[in-house]
Amino acid sequence: MQSRLLCLAALLLVAPATQAEELPIFDAHIHYSHDAWEMLPAAEAVAVLRRAGVKRALVSSSSDEGTQRLLAAAPDLIVPELRPYRSRGEIGSWVRDETVIPYLEERLARHRYVAIGEFHAYGADVELPVMRRVIELALQHGLFLHAHSDADAISRIFAQAPASRVLWAHSGFAPPAKVREMLERHSGLWADLAFRTDHAPGGRLDPDWRALFLDFPDRFMVGTDTFTPERWYYVEEHARSARAWLAELPREVAEKIAWRNGERLFTAANDACPDIAGAKRLATDGQVLKFRTLPASPGVGQPFAVELALCGADGRPAATPPRVDAWMPDHRHGMNLKPQLRTLAPGRFMAEGFLFHMPGLWEFRFEIGAPPDRVTLTSPRMLD
Ligand SMILES: [Zn+2]
Q1: Is the dihedral of CA 197, 203, 208, 211 positive or negative?
Q2: What is the architecture, at CATH level 2, of domain 10-266?
Q3: What residue spans in the chain does CATH classification 2.60.40.1930 cover?
Q4: Most Cβ neighbours (<10 Å): which of 32, 94, 186, 190?
Q5: Are 123 and 143 in contact (CB under 8 A)?
Q6: Domain spanning 280-383: which CATH class is it, in words?
Q7: Alpha carbon of 222 to ligand 1 centroid (Å)
Q8: 225 CA to middle of ligand 1, Å?
Q9: Is the entire prediction scored with pTM above 0.85?
Q10: Phi and psi for 239 in degrees, rounded to 5?
């Protein structure tokens, strides 16, 4: 009798996890650093991710070579971010090492990334010249900052550059009340849950974290954090345990945290969308917008055009162009000119008549669709 009861209890425990088994995972915190690629060749690392049901992995490595190797092995799976470390051991020294900047600039010119990070910076470190430049580079290239930082450093980033978008690694290891306060205060802040267990101690969802997930379903992502090569053996287990506690949430919320948030923020939902060389990509809920300026880096007082491609959630080129404009969020005004838009081909458009008439932070604004379903995408651009 007792053993039958035990069996029943075991079944009850297993049921929610099995039910959610097919839940794909966007793993927002993967590293493939030099010692990992020596131990686990790229093809095997990709196999680990696929076995775990990881749909996509946000990868950064010391050095970036590891990320590039994984990306070459599985371009459909790997979402690349640029880590400022060239080898293990730069975690504590990099914020004072000015050679980091030319390294980042050279990589940014050569490869495509969605973020700069994961980097470690605490408190007033983000006011140092190297971090200031990193924050600027992220804005210029339309990239996220993936920050392993305390709440103080995160607030200092937003004070310095309010248009920044930050993925807060490990949610700062902060308690849920602090994470809530930060998410309320900073609309450009998202958080990963890598390498922390307090949101699901013993595999069950903590009530305070649960409330936070329900109140901010669009702001969280899961992640393994393979900070040492051995952690690669934990990727499958992480995906399994994440599915178990996610199953306690409403399905829609679970899907967002498991993969939809990462997908929406970081990936080309649709690569069938017409390609534009050197274009930046913005995506929301399946819609993809790619754009570039002509010339590539217009200065103050220099007329330029914006070439763009837009595809709907169904993957088809959009028939209607978005509204395009440039705006100064800090000054609450736009340009003195009104750009004119023409259609080049299905889903491809050219907007002419742009001019930044003063230095400062400008934002490109793209409005897709008509109210009440209008979606606005922005891409910040810092002008000296
Ligand atoms: Zn990490």
Answers
A1: positive
A2: Alpha-Beta Barrel (3.20)
A3: 280-383
A4: 32
A5: no
A6: mainly beta
A7: 12
A8: 5
A9: no
A10: -60, -40
